[in-house]
Design a protein that fits this description.
mainly beta; 6% helix
């Protein structure tokens, strides 16, 4: 019933859509505008402006300047153009090398001189120095900049180059942009969304990549976005072959490795592009590949030899016997008390310590995994065809595939896992120029992502869950007899986890995109109307893990002692999991925007966007919700018969509506302005409201009463047997009423609103050098988050299940929509984008906070502001490229011989340097429930600063755990969230390349790149659980995949042959 409004809207759009030619939201197209004037500055109407693309021989657009001398050319493909302006009585004005970039609105004014039309005045435009006509802040880089960059890229993603753009910081395997997390970013290739595919884009195929950082226009569905524009063929046949070699023999030894582990990576790419029919049809094809034949070094935390034998005499606290409530004599657990399951798991799967002192518990085991810590092989074929149907109609088709097999490491050697990932992306787009005033665009996109875990690769077979369960004698975890890769999850506080990834088809996802827009120029207005429709389909066939068990020290006072006794604090399982299920979701967006030239110096952009997110669904109809008012589980009436007969009868199940009604109020305005004080100074700014994007399949709950997922917290009383213990860590049916957890989603979706704004002053200080000063801010309200509301108020009264608000349930996760966030930043940037020496330098001070990050107490969530974890307070970057002024065509030795030029000419040096503070993280404790809310562990009390002075921070004591304490009985801790700061950034990269021109138009480039040239160690965040012996200890450095590439020094060599 609730699908009807969406169907009606979509049908209406299809009815009014005319046969088309394409433009899309998050457009990968550019606009060119300007004013034609004479030498005195008087505007000239009636001049003919012609834009051609020399590379394809195409006449792209012809327009006539209006009564105010203005001209406008919207929806142009990124590339290099030639602009010509003609009018009888004036010399012809020609601007060569006009570079148009993705999503850019560029101004190019023409000054006509009196004379004959056969005379020409020619200028070279190059790249734009100032952004003169929009209020947004964006960044971009092209293929040449990427090739010359000073990054050692073990994966060819765009994120390293993104981190050189102002407002963009690395965050794990992704980026955070102006305080906005990745889920609020659109990731696109050739204008087609690829949001769900993760970091799998290959920058080697891209001609240009742009990122919209602040104040995106109404055609953007998210606060931030990036778009990758693929390479395309032209009239000249061109090709390239490159090879890059990574070798540990050239690298520094990783910080934590005793001996350097050999590492090799081979990367190559072949590409060819040119005409199929000259001036008509063009092709570009490429194949990129990587091979990683060596392994990776790993560290783990394992119990000491004494602990393995039950000897805890080295532990300062007494080990309590749960049967008597008294300490074990001499802190020694008798071997006959060892659980048979724990004994078998220890002997079969927990290795002996081999590193550090005898009693060391942190980083005391090292080993070499025989494969890379990511994929060991990657292949990317790529094809693009461009066809000029007519002078006014262009058609583009593009296909890309990626294939990666993995044999991956987990915390301990025996738990490696495997994965095969196959991905395909395709786009078909068409652009039609109906007239000088009207351009119509349409685009279809398809993404397919297939992931299967547990396959055998090169003789490597992941551990089988059913076999492992039998080997250790664990009972009650595989009722349906599944036989896939997997292992029971054994989480022992302070030690590396025993677990792996379960096998099966993790995803078989298919996304479809349809996008359309019409750009209409009339007078001083450039209107754009558009809409986009996206469908998402997800599939999962993965079996849940073979039980999950937490040992946190709450039973005996030490987590490993709990494990040896086989008495977990928490025990979880899924009795009859539902597998091989499909979910669907949709998205619809519509917008209108106008660029209004109020005067020759003032441009106002304004627009309105509406987004609609229908509720996600499981195709089999087995979904549920939970009603807070009645405490009942709600399922569709026709799914009542599918409810498991084992579902506890203490929980009411009844038929009703479980599908949330979509939010129809997501109407968001956008506005920005740009005022040119003079030819060298611009004041810009803007405001935009954006709709919060929730997860694609949020609200589609498919477990609940249809599969029995049990969750037990142990009850241990001296003299009595524990409720839960090995070998069968699940109680009888009389306890089933306290084993179930549920999630509750409101029946009316309420998407939050993100309000973003900026004010900027931009000035060209000297020819081709621009500086920008900006204040950037955002305020977000009504944000969605989830928390467990089935907790009693903190109290000194010991916890019992009947104190819960809903005692028949364990956890009740509720979605709330009252979260707020705020971001304030001051930013300075100076850049020079053309010439032999170019640079881009910027600094950002940012404060990024939210008021819903501490979810311990359901009755007191919002109003407490804490730092967002990923945004560094200080962040600066300097990026330079210098073509050394030696050799033919350069300042020195410009007339040297060809032979000498091959030695001294063609050298380029590139550098990238980062300076920044640390990311933020939270302290925690484990093994106690001082709030008496049924919560094990949480946020501690703060009794000191916590953060150590910079000169006192070491990898073994990054913060002071003694500045925190377990809270007293009756309340939660007061330390707060994200109050500790991790390691900062001080990293420098450099590359040196030499281009040698060969006969027949060929060239050979050889380059050497060094990341982290000074080998400055950059650490990951330390262990922060003050209840563990490892608190304050660091066991890893920043990953090579971190955008800033701040791992150990790595050196690569590269050769590129072009023809």
């Amino acid at each position: 019933m609730r699908a009807q409004p969406f169907s009606a809207i979509l049908s209406l759009l299809l009815l009014v859509t005319v046969p088309a030619v394409p433009v899309s939201a998050q457009s990968n197209l550019a606009s060119l505008r300007g004013t034609v004037a004479d030498a005195t500055g008087a505007v000239i109407p009636g001049a003919t402006i012609t834009l051609t693309e020399p590379g394809t021989g195409s006449l792209v657009r012809t327009v006539v300047s209006d009564t105010l001398g203005n001209y406008e050319m919207p929806d142009l493909r990124p590339g290099t153009y030639r602009l010509q302006v003609e009018l009888e009585g004036f010399k012809t004005f020609v601007s060569e090398n006009v570079l148009l970039e993705s999503g850019q609105t560029r101004r190019l004014d023409a000054r006509l001189e009196v004379g004959g039309a056969q005379e020409e005045v020619t200028v070279v435009a190059g790249a734009q120095v100032l952004t003169t006509d929009t209020g947004e802040i964006s960044g971009r880089f092209n293929a040449e900049q990427y090739q010359k960059s000073a990054f050692v890229d073990v994966f060819p993603s765009p994120f390293a180059m993104f981190s050189t753009q102002p407002g963009v910081q690395g965050s794990g395997w992704g980026v955070v942009v102006a305080g906005q997390p990745r889920e609020q970013m659109v990731e696109a290739m050739d204008g087609v969304h690829s949001r769900r595919q993760g970091n799998t884009n290959n920058t080697n195929f891209m001609e240009e990549v742009s990122v919209n950082i602040v104040n995106a226009p109404a055609d953007s569905s998210r606060v931030t976005s990036y778009n990758m524009v693929s390479k395309r063929g032209q009239n000249e046949l061109r090709g390239m072959a490159n090879y890059e070699h990574f070798n540990s023999a050239l690298n520094a030894k990783p910080f934590f490795e005793s001996d350097e582990v050999p590492f090799l990576l081979h990367e190559w790419q072949l590409e060819l592009g040119g005409p199929i029919l000259r001036n008509k049809t063009f092709f570009y094809g490429s194949w990129a590949a990587q091979r990683v034949p060596k392994g990776s070094f790993n560290l783990a935390d394992v119990p000491s030899l004494r602990m393995r034998d039950g000897d805890f005499s080295e532990v300062g606290e007494p080990i309590i016997d749960p049967l008597t409530g008294a300490p074990f004599p001499d802190n020694q657990i008798p071997s006959e008390r060892f659980s048979s399951v724990a004994r078998a798991a220890q002997e079969l799967y927990i290795p002996l310590p081999n590193r550090g002192d005898e009693g060391a518990l942190s980083n005391n085991f090292e080993w070499v995994h025989p494969y890379h810590w990511d994929y060991f092989k990657g292949d990317w074929p790529f094809v693009r065809i461009d066809h000029n149907v007519t002078e006014n109609n262009t058609l583009t088709g593009r296909w890309m595939k990626g294939r990666w097999p993995y044999v991956l490491v987990t915390d301990l050697p025996d738990f490696f896992w495997s994965r095969l990932r196959n991905q395909q992306r395709a786009v078909l787009s068409d652009t039609h120029v109906f007239s000088a005033a009207a351009v119509h665009t349409i685009r279809f996109g398809y993404n397919h992502d297939f992931i299967e875990d547990g396959r055998e690769f090169e003789g490597q077979v992941p551990i089988n869950g059913a076999d492992a369960v039998a080997a250790i004698g664990l009972q009650g975890v595989n009722a349906d007899g599944h036989s896939t890769a997997g292992f029971p999850e054994l989480n022992i506080t302070g030690f590396s986890e025993l677990s792996t990834i379960t096998g099966g088809v993790k995803s078989d996802d298919k996304d479809f995109t349809f996008e359309e827009s019409l750009t209409w120029t009339t007078g001083r207005h450039v209107w754009k109307f558009g809409w986009e429709y996206l469908t998402f389909e997800g599939f999962s066939g993965v079996v849940p893990n073979y039980g999950s068990f937490t040992f946190n020290g709450q039973i005996t006072g030490h987590a490993y002692a709990d494990f040896l006794l086989g008495i977990p604090f928490q025990s979880e399982r899924v009795l009859h999991p539902l597998v091989n299920r499909r979910q669907t979701s949709k998205e619809l967006g519509m917008y209108v925007q106008d660029s209004f030239k109020l005067s020759a110096n003032l441009t106002l952009d304004y627009g309105l966007r509406w987004d609609y997110f229908p509720a996600a669904r499981y195709k089999d109809g087995l979904m549920y919700n939970w009603d807070k008012a009645t405490g009942a589980v709600i399922v569709p009436p026709d799914a009542l018969d599918a409810v498991s007969p084992q579902y506890p009868d203490t929980i009411e199940v009844r038929g009703g509506d479980v599908i949330a009604e979509p939010d129809t109020r997501n109407l968001r305005p956008r506005a920005s302005m740009a005022y040119r004080l003079n030819e060298r100074t611009v004041i810009r700014g803007g405001y935009g409201a954006f709709t919060e994007r929730l997860d694609y399949f949020v609200g589609a709950q498919g477990g609940g009463p249809f599969e029995i997922a049990e969750d037990y917290q142990n009850i241990v009383q001296a003299g009595d047997a524990p409720l839960v213990s090995f070998p069968n860590p699940f109680p009888g049916l009389e306890f089933a009423s306290v084993s179930q957890s549920v999630s509750s989603y409101p029946l009316r979706t309420d998407n939050g609103a993100i309000h973003q704004f900026n004010v900027s002053v931009e000035r060209e200080l000297m020819p081709r050098v621009g500086v920008r000063l900006s204040y950037i801010g955002s305020r977000s309200a009504g944000l969605n988050y989830s928390l467990n509301i089935n907790k009693p108020e903190p109290s000194a009264t010991p916890f019992t299940t009947d104190r819960r608000p809903w005692p028949q349930l364990v956890d009740v996760d509720e979605i709330r929509s009252d979260g707020s966030a705020r971001y304030d930043a001051f930013q300075a940037q100076v850049q020079k984008r053309s010439g032999a020496f170019t640079f881009n330098a910027h600094y950002t001070w940012a404060r990024d906070q939210a008021d819903y990050l501490n979810d311990e107490n359901p009755s007191d969530i919002t109003g407490h502001w804490y730092n967002a974890a990923a945004t560094r307070r200080h962040y600066g970057m300097v990026n330079t490229t210098w073509e050394l002024p030696v050799g033919r065509g350069r300042r020195f030795l410009s007339d040297t011989s060809p032979l000498l030029d091959r030695l001294v000419g063609g050298w380029t040096v590139s550098t990238v340097s980062y300076f920044g503070g640390g990311t933020f993280f939270s302290p925690s404790f484990d093994g106690a429930d001082p709030s008496n809310t049924g919560t094990s562990g949480g946020i501690p009390d703060r009794v000191g600063p916590g953060n150590l002075p910079g000169d006192q921070r070491t990898p073994t004591r990054w913060f002071n755990p003694d500045d925190f304490a377990v809270p007293p009985d009756g309340r939660f801790g007061n330390a707060g969230v994200n109050i500790l700061e991790g390691d900062g950034l001080h990293v420098h990269h450099v590359s040196l390349s030499k281009e040698t021109r060969l006969a027949g138009g060929m060239s050979l480039t050889f380059g050497v790149t060094a990341s982290n040239i000074f080998n400055q160690a950059h650490f990951g965040n330390p262990a922060s659980n003050i209840s563990a012996a490892t608190a304050g200890n660091i066991s890893e450095v920043m990953s090579d995949f971190q955008a800033e590439r701040a791992g150990r020094r790595m050196i690569t060599v590269k050769g590129v042959l072009r023809f």
